[in-house]
Amino acid sequence: MTNRRDVLKLGLAAGGMAATAHGKVEFRQSGLVFPQGFTPSIEAAPSPPIVPFKDPLFRMPVATPEPLSTFNPLPDGRRHQRFYDFPPVDYYKENIVQNRWVYHTEGPYAQGSWHWGWQNDAAGLFHAPGPTYKVRYGEPVLVRRLNNLPPVGDPDARVQFALPSITIHLHNGHTASESDGIPTDFFNSGEFWDHHYANFPAGFDNREIMNTLWYHDHRLDFTAPNVYAGLSGFYLLFDDLDSDNENDPNPDAFRLPSGDYDIPMILHDVQFNQDGQVVFDFFDGGLGPRVEPEEDSDTIYIGSSNFTLFGMLGDRITVNRTISPRLTVEARKYRFRLLNGGPSRLYLLSLRLERADGTVVDNHPGLKFYVLTNDGNMLQEPLEMESFPLWVANRVDVVVDFSAFEPGDKVYLVNRLEMRDDGAGESGRLLDEGDLVMRYDVVPQNPDVGDPSRIPDFLRELPDINMDEVRRERLWVFDYDNGQWTVNGRVMDPNRIDALIEQGSAEVWTIRNSGNSWSHPVHTHFEEFQFLEFNGKPIANDSFLRSRKDIIELGPNEEYKFFGRWRDFFGTHVMHCHNVVHEDHEMMIQWKIVPPGMGD
Amino acid sequence: MTDINDRSQVDTEPVTPDTSVSKAISARRKLLASLPAAIAAATLPALAFGRAGEMDIQQCSEDTLRRVAAARFPDVTVTDHQGQQHRFFADLIQDRVVMINFMSIEAEADYPVTAQVARLVHSFADKIGKELHVFSISYDSTNDTPERLAEFARQFDAPEGWRFLTADADSVVALGLKLYRAEGRPHRKLDADLIHYGNAASGLWATVGSMYQDLDLSRRRIASVMPREVPPSPQLRQAGPRRLNTHGAIYDNAEPGRV
Rounded to an integer, what distance in angstroms lies between the CA atom of residue A511 and that of residue B222? Predict the structure, then answer.
């Protein structure tokens, strides 16, 4: 047993915890704590080499509706809240399957990596990310998602680390619980789920209109591997102002770059074995019959030495599931919708110029972003920024004006943020050179199109914050206890509701990080909120954070206070850390919208 | 390089090809050990290592780290409560669906994690030992002998297929290290621990909090990694959402009226 000196030391480490004769049981059972010594796989077993900027950026196909007559059984409105208030004008089907996806066309990657994704029929294009929805406010839709993934144990199941039991969350749609894709609403291989998206702004307030949303898996315990395996895509909402038409004759329309010049980009960092197959870091993918270690020892992937609950980092940063892609851009304005799809890596993005003669320029005046949105919500006015943070699930729409550059110039999207080795948050340092995420190759403008797009001076007004509506305040403390991620000292329990919120009320929530070295991109579903304070200070009027948001970029020891409303539907939703490894282990709470008078 | 087939090496001091590197790592660890976080980190192996002194613990931990880093799962020798020895990975885990937790007999009174595992085990009834294998690993190598673990197993009416395992401290730490990334301060108010579940054949691994309330849901979470067959049918079954105003389990909205 531990001697007295050990017990004392243990007490010291526990922050003054009383030492008792039973020093051992002071630590809850397997609160086993181990020394430092973690070597991340991105160092121990790097992915095979690549030829950067060889492959073009993948442009996801736009989702196309299908005739209702092809739905069997027909969608049933009695399964959805307010279905008949918002009858769908369009119906979509997603066929989710397994196939090979080519991340890169050189080396072992070229044979394709086993992946989850979308394929309408056997002859159709298999792709991940999923189809990009382009839908409009006032036009509700229904999406039927068919799980045609091979079940667990199927000889054809090649994606070893992900669970073919899925739920698809629309982040951050104003969507009833049963269509939101919460962790417990999963459907297995051979099953489908109908999602009804009413496409109206929260509270019927046009200032609540959102523009860039995304959908992704949210399966209880398996969100990180399932999103990583391929299940993510864009859902873009348009309205009279952000109208998807840079030639819009409506004098109020934003006329932002549209069509081919409006490009959604999702960043995922991925780790590969020497066979070009995607690996999830924690285990080697087992000794399934298809791993065949005896054939070629290079293909044995030894995962990280820990079942790490801290985070999953890959050494290949992909954009739209292409490793280090390039995009040919005309010398004009583009709208890029940048989304960090996770699982754990955080970014700080900036631009770098390489002249045709190879000269590298970091301070060219064109190297800036006109930032339009935070978390897919239009700011009040565009902000000119040389760099911006992109945490997991952040959506930041920017305009980059390539007319500032010469044909032949190459512009790089650069990440400068360094992560902790274990993926639990920022290291606190910036990378000197940074990772080159992708490259834009500048060519002359197309004279037939020119650049009719604009960057408006004003975007969208913020909804009022009315403290008279606030029914109560709540405090949520994010921490790490005994090897588990906790909120208010508890792990997620799918049968426990942590907050009963009255429909139509507002609340003020304080989100606190009690850890001094971990970062948590905290996300709450269903409605956007506005920050009141950061670390006890109000948010400046010209701040990037002065916006509607659904992610709280909660750094070590930080605290945010926000004002939020809960309107229009009833039911259960979640708030969780969007480092999806933390979410799976089990940094999540559930809240429920209840009728007035029934709140807690 | 050491030839691993050279039997003359048996019973001699293990030789690592990179002893100098190990020493460098060791020096770095000792430096880290002087930091508060590393002091915390060094303490719990102390529990598993019993009476070992501070530096011994540090050295054992380092050896363990090196050993684990080279293995997909530490294939250490463990002894079950019936006194049988097994290779942990090759004999017990490989190609199986498993549930694993860490425990000690002494701590059970304060913190009944084994009781929670028992609820799950009994809910799987005759699947235990066939479709699901359960391992409760004691980290109290000093006290939890196979005999005491056998008595403990009887208290929980443990069926064949639920094994209580003990091993030398080094091996227990190796297993703990593979399954945990537990760094930081312990928090005694938190009544929760992890039960790992996984399908080693396919490579699916996840955890469920041991202080779960909903047995049926926890059971379903574990069952989800078991091989299953989908009846070949062009017609997919609607899993949800359920009809409004019908009642049932939150996690399977397709079955109206199910409680």
Answer: 32
Give all strands (DSSP E) within B104-203, no chain letters.
Answer: 133-138, 162-166, 194-199
Q: Which residue of A has its CA nearest to B169?
A: A1
End-to-end CA distance of chain B: 63
Chain A contact probe: residue of B180, B191, B233, B252 with most A CBs at under 10 A: B180
Q: Which residues contact A181 (CB under 8 A, 6 or more apart)?
A: A167, A168, A169, A170, A195, A215, A218
CA distances, B82 to each of A41, A50, A344, B117, B140 (Å): 38, 53, 43, 19, 17
> What's the pLDDT tens digit per position in A287-299?
322 333 333 333 3
Local confidence band at A3 (pLDDT 50, 70, 90 cut-offs): very low
Instruction: Name the A residues in 474-513 with CB < 8 Å from any B CB.
Output: 479-484, 486, 489-496
Q: Which of B41, B198, B229 sits opposite A34 (nearest CB)?
A: B41
Q: What is the pLDDT of residues A229-266, one digit of tens each?
A: 999 999 999 999 999 999 999 999 999 999 999 999 99
A584 touches chain B (CB under 8 A): yes
User: Which of B204, B242, B243 is the mutation pick for testing A, counting most A CBs within 10 A?
Assistant: B204
Q: Where does the pLDDT of residue A130 fall: very low under 50, low under 70, confident under 90, or very high at 90 and above?
A: very high
Task: Specify the domain boundaries for CATH 2.60.40.420 within chain A.
Answer: 68-258, 270-443, 467-594
Fold of A68-258: Immunoglobulin-like (2.60.40)
Q: Which of B47, B73, B91 to mutate to test the interface with A (most CBs of A within 10 A)?
A: B47
Would you call B239 and A178 a contact, using CB atoms and an 8 Å cutoff? no
Per-residue confidence band for A482, with pLDDT thresholds at 50, 70 and 90: low
- Cβ distance A17 to B186 less than 8 Å, yes or no, reads yes
**Inter-chain residue contact A29 with B113, CB threshold 8 Å:** yes
A314-326: pLDDT as tens digits:
999 999 999 999 9
ipTM > 0.90 (yes/no): no
Which CATH number does A467-594 carry? 2.60.40.420
| β-strand pairing of A191-197 with A141-147 | antiparallel
**pLDDT at position B249:** 65
Contacts of A564 (CB under 8 A, 6+ apart): A506, A507, A508, A509, A524, A527, A528, A529, A530
| Mean pLDDT per 10-residue interval, chain B, length 259 residues | 38 31 36 33 44 51 54 80 93 92 84 92 96 93 93 97 91 74 45 79 84 86 89 83 79 46
Region A67-92: mean pLDDT is 96
Q: Which of A140, A86, A108, A53 is nearest to A413 (CA)?
A: A53
- Go through the domains of chain B in sequence order and give each one's CATH number: 15-69 (no CATH), 77-223 (3.40.30.10)
Q: What is the CATH number of domain A270-443?
A: 2.60.40.420
